[in-house]
Amino acid sequence: MALRHCHNASDFEVAARRRLPKPLFDYVAGGADDETTKRANVAAFDRYQLVPRYLQDIREIDLRRTVLGCELAWPVILAPTGMSRMFHPDGECGVASAAEAAGVGYALSTMASASIEAIAQVSRGPKIYQLYLLADDGLNFAAIDRAKAAGYDAICLTVDTVVAGNRERDLRSGLTIPPRLGIGSLLQFARRPGWCRDHLLGGKFSMPNIAPPGAAATDISTLAAFFAQKMERHISWLRVQQLVRHWGGPFAIKGLQCAADAVLAAGHGVSAVIVSNHGGRQLDGTAATIDLVADIVDAADGRVEVILDGGVRRGTHVLKALAMGARACMIGRPYVYALAAFGQPGVVRLLELMRAETERGLALLGCSSVDQVGRRHLRLAAQVPAFLDERPISEPAIAQHQMHWTDR
Ligand SMILES: Cc1cc2nc3c(=O)[nH]c(=O)nc-3n(C[C@H](O)[C@H](O)[C@H](O)COP(=O)(O)O)c2cc1C
Question: Which atom of ligand 1 is least distant from the CA of 311?
């Protein structure tokens, strides 16, 4: 499938499936356990319907919004995803450049295959460093200091990975990072010669943000093992407060799903809560994030910004989240698919398409700015018409109605 034939996020998923070896596609597409939450994240958007209010002046459309202190051209941030070079040699640098061109934020993962500094060199756009907390605060503070020195705008602490989720697609495919070929997987990789060529020519890749001080960041499996061993299993609010103070700028927590936690976050100096279930990759059976966001917005009561993450595939999804009260949305898999299929140009096109969808949707809603979208633009798909709501149909009323028609 050619890039010009991709017209929406789903098309990029199809294209990525055709280019990636199956174990790698499954690594991106997969979720935990039965993948119930992963599916629910997308499906739940259909529970809410948009209510346009026409006869408005929409000659100028303004999508700009300030989020985590960053001025975004439209309220989207590319979610942190690890090891982008595994999917395409353009990797994180290509994604960050595409994000800058689109005026959206980019969150660099701790597990990235590009360094904090390399991203700062290729992008002057809004940048967030995503932190996985390690049991060694020296390493945590060192990572924060690197982000500060490189001019990042915000930190995002991911708290929903204290243990690894159960991703059964990866267990079945036997995927290792970096990919190692066994007899079983050889055939699956051989079926994707384009990816194999790029992978072989792309050179060795590493995870330069998790190397212990002084160590060479070359052997990924050693680094990954070191990292898993050091992962902090007790992230306390006190630790959060210390990290917030050490950073001294906008600070987000990613992975909260409960209104009470958003209130606690506000009380501990956090600036934004990213409502997320890690794209359904961690605890299966949790709610779709779009179902949670309004209650969290209400509980936060303006003390923290609320960002929705998970299942966003359309500009209208962005609009539904904003209508609920979210400041912005994060997008994960769609841009990974676009990168995997076409490299940086793919991410550029995906963002152009999703921005156009958002802008068109806003105009068709009758709004000239993202700040005008509100809950008055939403209804529940299952909502019954108001006249039925007010006067439940009684048995005699139905009988009378039937008589009326049989009399004619
Ligand atoms: C391949 C992949 C790698 C990911 N790696 C990270 C990561 O390193 N850190 C993190 O906080 N979240 C990570 N996530 C979760 C995303 O940041 C985001 O929460 C999720 O993809 C949102 O759901 P969506 O894919 O439906 O948009 C990863 C997701 C995917 C698909």
Answer: 26
